[in-house]
Design goal:
about 575 residues; alpha/beta; Amidase signature (AS) enzymes; 11-stranded mixed beta sheet; two-stranded antiparallel ribbon; EC 3.5.1.99; Amidase_dom
Length: about 575
C-alpha cells in the first residue's frame, strides 16, 4: 500500500528507497515525510533551472554590450527593430546591415521584453558561434542573419526542452531538431527559447519552473498558449520571427491574444522531428509546427525558406512540395465561406463583429462571400477532438506529472482528468449537456486496437462530410472567428472546451492562420454584459468572465484553406491584412 501511494509521488526507480524508508519509520510517518522530501527535491530542481535561466539572461546582457560600440547604437537599433522581416532579410543579404548589429539589437530588445513579461527561458549562447560561421557561408539563404526565437520544446543541441515539467530538466538535447537545422541552413540564427504552460496542454502560459508569462499589451491578461512565450516576445518587439506548435490552437490562440500573425500548417508540411511532447499516441488530432510573426509577408517568406531541398532531405516522410509563390501573389477573386458562430461556443461580441466587418471589406473588394455552417461541431469537439486527444483517459498525460507539482493554472484540468471513471460517469449524467459529454469523452476506451481504428475511421468520415459541403459551395477558403480577446489570467485552464474555433482544423488537418483586424470597443464591452452563451452552463459563464475588461485589446479573424494549401490560406490572410490597413489609413 505504501509503495503504491508513494509511487504516485516519485518516479518508479525511487520505489525501493521509499519502501525501505517506510520500514524504518513506519508507514504513516513515512508517507508524510516522504511527500515533504519529494516536494523539496522537486523545488531544488526548479531552483536549479531558474538559476540556469538567470545565468542565461546574464550572458544575454553581456553579449548585448557590443551593440554600444557600434556607431550611433540607439539610432541603429531603433532602425533595425522597425524593419519588417522582408525588409530586414533584404538588407542583410545586400550587406547594408550586418548580422552582428541585427543580432545584438534583438538580444537587447528580447532582454528588455522578458524583464517585462517573463517570456524567455533560455539563451542559445552558441548563436555567436553561428554568427562567425555565417561569414564563411558562400550561399546566403533567404533568412540570412535573421534572429529567430523558438518555443521551449523545439529541440536545440546542448539545450533542454523542458515541456514545463521537472522530469525533463536533465534531458539535454544531443542534436538540433530538423526545423532548427533547416533554419540554420537558410542563414537564420536561433537565439532564444520561450516559455510554455506546464505540459503544453493548456492555452495559458505558466509553469512552476519559470513562472507565468503575461500579455505585453495588458499584464492582467494571458498571452495565450501553449506558444505563449513566442506570442509575448514577438508582440513586445523582442523577436521578428518565432516558431510555435499547434495541437488545439497553440499557435493561433497566442497570435490572437497578443495581436500578431500566426500560421498552423497542414501536419507533415513541416517536420516535427526533434520536438519533445508530453502526449503520445494521438490518432484523430494532428500536431504541427509553424511560424509566428508581425505580418503575413513574414509568414510567407518563412514558409518559402523552409520548404526547401534541405527539409525534404532531412525528413523524407514529408511531401517534397516547395512554396507556390504564384498562388500567394494571385489577385484572382476568391469564393470565401464564412461563419460568425460555430454553434458550440457563442462568440464574444468583438469576435462576431470582427468577422462581420472583414466579410464586408472582402465583398467590397470583389470577393464572393457564402454562408457556411461547420457540420456537427459538437460531435467534432466532443468525440473526435477530446476523445482523440485523451483516448487513453489522459493516462499518458497524467503520468508526466509523477514527481512534479501541478501548476495552479492547470489544476482544474488535471483534477478533471484524474477523476475516477465511475465518478466521471456519475457527473456526466448529472451535469448539463456540454460538460456531461466532455466528461464522457475523458473515459478511457478499453481496447487500444478498437480505439485506433475507431478514431481513424470516424475522423476520415467526418473529413469527407466537411469536404462535400466545401465542394458543394465551390469554396476556395473559409473566414471564421478566432477565440478572443485575450483572457484574464487563470481562465484558459478553466475553458479548455472553448478551443472549438481552432481545434476543428486540427481534427480536419487543414492549414489555418490568424490576422489581427480590430480592437475591443466600449460597445463590445457593453454588449458583453448581455452574453448568455448557447447552453447557459458554467463554461458559458466563465467565457463571459474571461474576456471582460478588454477595451483596446486586439481582435483577430481566422483564415482556413484545404490540406496542403498553405499558400491559399496565406493569400486570404494577406488580403484581409491589406484591406484592414487600407481602412485604417483612409
Amino acid at each position: 500500500m505504501v509503495e503504491e501511494m508513494l509511487g504516485e509521488i516519485l518516479p518508479r526507480d525511487a520505489i525501493n528507497l521509499q519502501a525501505a524508508f517506510a520500514l524504518t519509520c513506519g508507514s504513516a510517518t513515512a508517507i508524510v515525510l516522504w511527500k515533504w522530501l519529494s516536494r523539496r527535491r522537486i523545488q531544488r530542481k526548479m531552483e536549479e533551472a531558474r538559476q540556469w535561466r538567470d545565468n542565461s539572461l546574464d550572458l544575454m546582457e553581456k553579449m548585448s554590450f557590443p551593440c554600444f560600440s557600434l556607431q550611433n547604437p540607439g539610432v541603429q537599433s531603433e532602425f533595425i527593430l522597425s524593419l519588417s522581416l522582408v525588409e530586414l532579410a533584404t538588407k542583410l543579404r545586400e550587406e547594408s546591415l550586418s548580422p552582428e548589429s541585427v543580432l545584438y539589437a534583438y538580444i537587447k530588445k528580447a532582454l528588455e521584453v522578458t524583464r517585462d513579461v517573463n517570456c524567455v527561458t533560455d539563451f542559445i549562447h552558441d548563436c555567436e558561434e553561428q554568427l562567425r560561421d555565417l561569414k564563411n557561408q558562400k550561399d546566403k539563404g533567404l533568412l540570412y542573419g535573421v534572429p529567430v526565437s523558438i518555443k521551449d520544446h523545439i529541440g536545440c543541441k546542448g539545450h533542454i526542452s523542458t515541456g514545463g515539467l521537472v522530469q525533463f530538466l536533465n534531458k539535454v538535447e544531443k542534436e538540433d531538431s530538423v526545423i532548427v537545422k533547416v533554419l540554420k541552413k537558410q542563414g537564420a540564427i536561433p537565439f532564444v527559447k520561450t516559455n510554455i504552460p506546464q505540459s503544453m496542454i493548456n492555452y495559458d502560459c505558466s509553469n512552476l519552473i519559470f513562472g507565468p508569462t503575461v500579455n505585453p499589451r495588458n499584464h492582467k491578461k494571458s498571452p495565450g498558449g501553449s506558444s505563449g512565450g513566442e506570442g509575448a516576445l514577438i508582440a513586445g518587439g523582442g523577436s521578428i520571427l518565432g516558431f510555435g506548435t499547434d495541437v488545439a490552437g497553440s499557435i493561433r490562440l497566442p497570435s490572437s491574444f497578443c495581436g500578431i500573425c500566426g500560421l498552423k500548417p497542414t501536419g507533415s508540411r513541416l517536420s516535427t522531428l526533434g520536438l519533445a511532447s508530453p502526449i503520445g499516441g494521438m490518432k484523430s488530432v494532428t500536431a504541427t509546427i509553424g511560424p509566428m510573426a508581425r505580418d503575413v509577408d513574414s509568414l510567407a517568406l518563412c514558409m518559402k525558406a523552409l520548404l526547401c531541398d534541405e527539409l525534404f532531405r532531412l525528413d523524407p516522410t514529408l511531401p517534397p512540395m516547395p512554396f507556390k509563390e504564384e498562388i500567394y501573389t494571385s489577385s484572382k477573386p476568391l469564393r470565401i465561406g464564412y461563419y460568425e458562430d460555430d454553434g458550440y461556443f457563442q462568440p464574444s461580441p468583438s469576435m462576431r463583429r470582427a468577422v462581420r466587418e472583414i466579410k464586408q471589406l472582402l465583398q467590397t473588394a470583389g470577393h464572393t462571400l457564402i454562408p457556411f455552417v461547420p457540420p456537427r461541431l459538437n460531435y467534432v469537439v466532443d468525440e473526435l477532438f477530446t476523445r482523440g486527444l485523451f483516448s487513453d483517459g489522459a493516462a499518458s498525460l497524467l503520468e508526466k506529472f509523477n514527481g512534479d507539482i501541478v501548476d495552479p493554472n492547470l489544476k482544474s484540468q488535471v483534477n478533471c482528468y484524474s477523476i475516477p471513471i465511475v465518478i466521471k460517469k456519475i457527473l456526466a449524467f448529472i451535469l448539463k449537456p456540454v460538460v456531461s459529454i466532455w466528461l464522457t469523452c475523458l473515459i478511457k476506451m478499453e481496447n487500444d486496437v478498437d480505439r485506433y481504428h475507431t478514431d481513424k475511421t470516424f475522423s476520415q468520415t467526418y473529413r469527407e462530410e466537411f469536404l462535400a459541403e466545401w465542394r458543394n459551395l465551390k469554396l476556395d477558403v473559409i473566414l471564421c472567428p478566432a477565440l478572443g480577446p485575450a483572457f484574464n489570467e487563470g481562465y484558459p485552464g478553466k475553458l479548455f472546451a472553448a478551443t472549438s474555433y481552432t481545434n476543428l482544423y486540427n481534427v480536419l488537418n487543414f492549414p489555418a492562420g490568424i490576422v489581427p483586424v480590430t480592437t475591443v470597443s466600449k460597445a463590445d464591452e457593453e454588449e458583453l454584459a448581455h452574453y448568455k452563451g448557447h447552453y447557459g452552463d458554467p463554461w458559458d459563464k466563465r467565457l463571459k468572465e474571461a474576456v471582460k475588461d478588454a477595451v483596446g485589446l486586439p481582435v483577430a479573424v481566422q483564415c482556413v484553406a484545404l490540406s496542403w494549401q498553405e499558400e491559399m490560406c496565406l493569400r486570404l490572410m494577406k488580403e484581409v491584412e491589406t484591406l484592414v490597413h487600407e481602412r485604417r489609413t483612409k
